[in-house]
Write a structure and sequence with these properties.
Blueprint lengths: L2 E5 L14 H4 L2 E5 L7 H7 L5 E4 L8 H4 L7 E4 L9 H6 L3 E3 L6 H15 L2 H9 L16 E5 L3 H12 L3 E5 L5 H7 L2 E2 L3 H7 L2 E4 L13 H4 L7 E4 L8 H9 L5 E4 L19 E3 L8 H19 L9
Parallel strand pairs: 1-2, 1-3, 3-4, 4-5, 6-7, 6-9, 7-8, 9-10, 10-11, 11-12
Helix pairs in contact: 5-7
Amino acid sequence: MRMRCAVLDDFQDTALRSADWSPVEDRVDIVAFDTHIADEDGLATRLADFDIVVTLRERVPFPGTLLDRLPRLRLLIASGMRNSVIDYAAAERNGVTVCGTASAATPPVELTWTLLLGLARNLVTENNALRAGGPWQSTVGADLHGRRLGLLGLGKIGSRVARVGLAFGMRVSAWSQNLTEDRTDEVGVELASSKEQLLSDSDFVSVHLALGDRTRGLLGPAELALLKPTAYLVNTSRAAIVDQDALLAALRDGRIAGAGLDVFAEEPLPADHPLRTAPRLLATPHLGYVSRANYATYYGQAVEDIRAFLAGDPIRPLG
């Protein structure tokens, strides 16, 4: 009996073109969905006839209540080797094998700098004015050289962002709850004495932390109030690390110069969401991982995961 594989959230219609699926096509029918299904009932209905699901990043939660409603599901593949929205215990209870793929650090690093530079030089405002025949040079950009870049997190992505900042001649400092001076010395940046010091001293703040109990809501109203009115905040990590309502208020009141966001509490962002019209905001639709090379890795290794599962020897297990 042939198996069926669902590929979720293929918004750009690229999943089947990003990898060679022929090694499994003799045993598996592959169906890619280009629209997002947000509610659990809709997912349970849509996925009821599938044995394999390939999910993109952490956009679609797989709680126990959903997994219990998918008795046919046998293999769940997540892009990346960490996924916080899958109930692994429920997957095991339901006989579902969960596997991952590699995920490159360079695309989110590059997007972080895209947002930071776009904010600093008011690129959207100036581009729109130029194309519409508006004013010539209506803004004055913020300098990077000699300014302080504060990083919340200095892991695989944060450390690469730091090195780019150093190349621009910025003074770079970092903080996280377990960050040590040995680590900051290794990267060549300063260790902030506290989160509060980093926020109050920095001209640009960029978030590069994993989401967990200690980081959820890490930047709330009190923390955002520490930022200079000339400071910019960039978040390409996880939306829940920054209090969304507090950030909206800070942008609307002009208490910070601007923010760059690539991650949101609800994705895709609803058409009427206030972030779509917030002032001083440069936002992208979660493009941090979206690159040709990364997609080739995600879907190429998804094919490998399927082949290994069919051979009875799963690879890259998660849980």
